[in-house]
Amino acid sequence: MRILTTLITTLVILSCLYSCQKATSFEPPRASTPSTGGTGTTPTSTKAGFSITCGGIVLKGTYTAAKAVDTSNYLVVPLNIDTVGTYTISTGAVNGVSFSATGTFATKGATTITLLASGTPADGGTYNYTIGGTSGTCSQSITFLPAAGSAAYTFDCTKTVANGTYTQGVALSASNTISVSVNVTALGTYKIYTSTTNGVSFTATGSFTVLGVQTVTLAGAGTPTAAGANTYAVSANGTNCIVAITTAAPPPATFTFDGSPNTCTLAAKSGTFVINTALTSSSTVSVQVSVATTGAYSIQTQTVGGFSFSGTGTFTSTGKQNVILIGAGMPSAAGTFTFTPTSTTGIAGCSFDVVVAAAPTGVFSCSIDGIATNFGYNASATSATTGNTKVLELDGAASSTSSGGTLNLSITKIDGVAVTTGSYDQNGIFSGKYAVTGAYTDGNATTWGPTTSTTSTTQLPMLITITSITATRVKGTFSCTLGDTFGTSGKTKQLTSGVFDLPIQ
User: Fold this and answer.
1) What is the Cβ-side half-sphere exposure of residue 284, based on CA atoms within 13 angstroms?
2) Distance between CA atoms of residues 382 and 13, nearest Å
């Protein structure tokens, strides 16, 4: 039926487009008008080609942490221009500051340009900037002074130590720190920190009140997200010390399923369970457990009726708590199915039931030449997208053997926009946005379509009105005239008082 309807849809679209073309007149092409200077072309900008003389770059201005740069902060960059044209040169932001210039080189040869600074330095220390030409790049280092009141100090990276134990899924405590040795040469405030890696970071702030070598302790924060080794850069004033931290996998938890070996306690189900409908992450069952010792858990059920449930995680506290098991698979039959969750460490489970509903039924009926006809057997809608073409089809049969006839209606959107609520009629093709079509096969195997013959360029009246549409269901009304498209009788059928309320599969 759907292959036949596709054929009919193509026939309708081509016929209507052919009809439209015959009714359209065209003017001869006009000569183009030159846009500038009588040349007949529009000038386009040319990118300049140039190289940088790295050794001649001059840095201007003083750079201090936490103090915004101004017009006194810039780079003087010597260049050799190979090709005239427009240019944009930018270093990108480093430590909160960048340098850039844009313009046009009108002549070839040696020249200099000024790259103005913008931004506010984040920290003191020395940072490298890359300045790129069209052939090669140069590196320029800039030393930023500490913010006013900041201390001056250096790291002894050989004495940087990570303290405490680190376990996946276990939040850091006061014992999780990094110790770093510093040599203070000027008193003042400090901030030493790491970036966040594997869900964990470290930081320390304060004031040095004595000079000389001393130890600073960075407090850890966060929860490790995965087991394994990670490196952390302890940073301050543009200097880094690297320290490695290994996060251990959590040991398995010990727990029992409440209600075991009978029905699970407080087993709460969520989501939709319908035959031949794939489960999603919202298809879940919550079971209660009693945790004796914290640690990792992995729980799964057996597969019954084409679907199952599982859940993994880490218990960070003892006592009663709920575990969410997420469904996977597709129920292959309707009915009640019993599942028994167990752990990978052999902890025996309780049991819970899940009821799978039968496929939702659909309403698809009308009067054909005044005779009420129901096409509700296996009635459903389908939605499909191919490129910019979006098709909504309505299908149904009068009986299991189709001896009483079948009916198909479709809306084909050709403007790339999904089918929504509204009315769609046979004139939609002239808007260039959609086409409607239909096919009714009666008990004598005669197919009635949207035209009176295969050569007709006029589609018979058809109106499909969608009053409600979601991802899973569509409702509306319809009426149409269908002709003996593939025959020679020239007869028609009148379909009136049509209604549909169908699941979208």
Assistant:
1) 12
2) 21
262 within 8 A of 350, measured Cβ to Cβ: yes
Beta-strand ranges (E) seen in 53-120 are 58-60, 74-83, 85-90, 97-105, 109-119
Residue 354 exposed, middle or buried by CB count within 10 Å (0-12, 13-18, 19+): buried
Distance of CA 391 to the CA centre of its chain: 24
CA distance 404 to 92: 73
pLDDT in tens, 401-458: 656 789 999 999 998 899 999 999 999 988 889 999 999 999 888 899 999 888 888 8
Residue 183 one-letter amino acid? N
Chain centroid to CA 503: 27
* Residue from 400, 363, 366 nearest 493 by CA: 366
At 165, is the secondary structure helix, strand, or coil?
coil
Give, for 140, the enclosing helix (H) or strand (E): strand 137-144
* Residue 417 CA: distances (Å) to CA of 380, 435, 453: 22, 13, 30
pTM for this prediction:
0.43
- Closest listed residue to residue 166, CA positions, set 232, 226, 253: 226
Q: List phi, psi (to 5°) of 384.
A: -140, 150
Exposure on the CB side of residue 188, measured as CA atoms within 13 A: 12
